[in-house]
Amino acid sequence: MRIVFIGPPGSGKGTQAKRLKDRLGIPHISSGDMLREAVARGTELGKKAEAYMNQGALVPDDLVIDLILERIRQPDAQSGFILDGFPRTLAQAEALTAALERTGLPIERVIHFNVPDEEIIARSTARRIDPETGRIYNLVFDPPPPEVRRRLVQRSDDDEPTVRKRLAKYHAETEPILDYYAGITDVRTISGVGTLEQVQQRLLAALNSNAGSGV
Ligand code: AMP
């Protein structure tokens, strides 16, 4: 199944995608993770993207579009994929549609994670990452064990002013994509508020139910 996750930064898309990929046997393709890896490796793309990312701005469309279209051409993505964090602008969505049209394998479902802004700010500013395992904790909602706590780091774009900027970008640039997709595919909105298990149940229900049945 070819699936797109759309939701504000910190709405739990990545966490749910990591759980879902093994269940469905398809890759989780996160534009944010791929860009962070490019920055860490110091590639040309990473050098170009870094300043935008640190400011909470969007990386220019052409750079991200090339990166993702190249990724979905890989063999492991031929039976489906979960796109997380891409597309984030209408231009990206249109470029993806055009590329998939050439293969005859369109996006089958868009999942919209709905979470209020104030909850996003509370969650994101408490998010911490274990640099050794990549595991994501939340100091409030999913606290780490004491022995891990000391080594946790905060993402450089998870401070409150930057989170507010990323949210404003989401409302201005990414939310309008939902209307675009409603015209061409099956869009389901689920609440991203609750425990990981509760959100996962809503997600599975939204993926399993047939087109047109609504959620
Ligand atoms: P994320 O991990 O999805 O929150 O992405 C982290 C940062 O990477 C964003 O704040 C942007 O600067 C950049 N980024 C990720 N995906 C995209 C995209 N589809 N378009 C533009 N910038 C992106």
Brief sketch in words of this structure:
This protein is α/β, with parallel strands linked by helices and 215 residues long. The chain is 50% helix and 14% strand. A hairpin with a 6-residue loop joins strand 5 and strand 6 (136-138).
Tally the beta strands.
7
Uncertain residue ranges:
none
One letter per element, helices H and strands E, the order comes to EHEHHHEHEHEEHHHEH
Overall residue-averaged pLDDT value: 94
Strand ordering within the main sheet:
2-3-1-4-7
**In which range does the helix fraction lie?**
40-55%
Shape: globular
State the end-to-end distance.
19 Å
Listed once per kind, the bound small molecules are: adenosine monophosphate
Please tell me how large the radius of gyration is: 17 Å
Question: Could you give a short account of the major beta sheet?
Answer: 5 strands, parallel
| Approximate strand percentage | 5-15%
| Backbone structural class | alpha/beta
Q: What's the helix count? A: 10
Structure description:
The chain is α/β, with parallel strands linked by helices. The protein has ten helices and seven strands. It has helices at residues 13-24, 31-41, 44-54, 61-72, 90-103, 117-125, 146-149, 160-174, 176-182, 196-208, and strands spanning 2-6, 28-30, 81-84, 109-114, 127-129, 136-138, 186-191. The chain has a five-stranded parallel sheet, with helices on both faces. The mean pLDDT is 94.
